[in-house]
Amino acid sequence: MKRINAAELCSLDTEKVLLLDIRSREEFELKGLEGSVNVPFDEISTGLSKLPKDRPVYVLCRTGDLSEEVAEILEDRGYEVCNIDGGYAAYVAFLAGTEL
User: Fold this and answer.
1) pLDDT score of 99
2) Using CA atoms, how far apart are residues 8 and 86, in angstroms rounded to an integer?
3) I need a labelling partner for 9 at 20 to 30 A (CA). Which of 22, 42, 63, 86 fits?
4) CB-based contacts of 96: which residues, under 8 Å, 6+ apart?
5) For strand 2-4 and strand 18-21, is the pairing parallel, antiparallel, or unpaired?
6) Is 10 an annotated catalytic residue?
7) What is the DSSP code (8-state) at residue 61?
């Protein structure tokens, strides 16, 4: 499975990839990334079937752990997938100029 870091996340073109945010609806509504799609982790069993397979899927969670699990599931289902290491926490730290 492919992985990227927070710096690489900032350069993603959401017209060419699908950014899948699996954090809760509340977290997503407060601080979702522009161009991302929210399927909360607790809805994964039904939500993944709605994802298109015509572009790579980049999976984001709070810390990068749950997104890795979901990325593995997607990879097993034939998706081109990438986990975002460190998740949203790493993204926020990168924007603040600090590394996790």
Assistant:
1) 63
2) 12
3) 42
4) none
5) unpaired
6) no
7) -
